[in-house]
Amino acid sequence: MFRIYTSQSLGQKWVETYQECSPIFACILGFTNTGLIPGISAAGATPEARKYTAIADAEFLMNGVQSSYQYPLPPLHQGVSPVFITRAIVEACNIPIHLFNAGLPISPSVPFIDLGGQPANCLTTGTALPLSLVYELFQQGLEWGEKLAKNTTKNYLILSECVVGGTTTALAILTGLGINATGKVNSSHPYCNHEQKEIIVKKGLTNAGYYDSFQPITPFELVAAVGDPMQIVVAGMAINASIRTGVMLAGGTQMLAVYALIKSIINTSEYDVNLDNIIVGTTRWVAEDLTGGTVALAESIGTVPLLATQLNFSSSSYEQLKMYEQGYVKEGVGAGGTAIAASLSFNWTQEKLLNTIETLVNNYHKIIN
Which of 243, 261, 285, 319 is 20 to 30 A away from residue 189, measured at CA? Predict the structure, then answer.
């Protein structure tokens, strides 16, 4: 129910090492005003709705179906939030959840760990986050990576994200690191808005003084210029956690950018890391997105094992789920990573995955209708 797309031997070694272990799930929430640019994201039908996407997803992730919500899931142009995939799996498999606020405009309505961050300015400013805050968030990530990985001899970590507009900040980080990501990133749109993203990224890097510049820049300065608060937190978490246990960066383009950021940090700083313990896990809707180039992007970053669940909604009785097969939504809130974990750790089949997710969607519609 999952496939290894890149770095086959490393990916297979990771799978064999952790297939009899249980996952611990962490979701790092963040926000960038880049997500408010009209048309930049389909994770919320309007810019105003996108302000609430992460906190609505967080509420549903933690509580599942209930009679009312403080922050209801925002309507999408098409499809349904990937949090339905994640919630269905963590609920059925009783996977522990840790929720982190790396920088949101509004605090979640459910219990969370506050990392003291702030929403990022639009990356076009070239001043997305204060550099001092980037360092502080990285230290928080290091500390929590160590905490989460303690006593995990029979566990591995799934590090997920929820950042609207995050594929655009991912493109900015990848470009700033010198990786050719043009036309290769994904989006929640059925056809990726590459031109719009590239114009935004060029403006941000230009305003920061880093576009076509030979000026030395650290990965921390790059995040401060054009990144978002989730990226540096997850990088820190993965670096320290990898010393003790396996880490699955659960996401598509955004987590490939985090992996590239990790490589840059350890190449320019003195931090111990075990890269063999880190993989990226996503959905086949991302890995096989014909409007992007996920596999090529992973290969250009280096030896990063890219895994993807083979979950398929073609036979679903719910149109919202079938929209994934048409390229809408694709990924988010660790949907791909948890689906891989369901197969890896709990031997779930396609039928079990689909039935469990559809049951949750059905129960939700009974309540809201």
Answer: 261
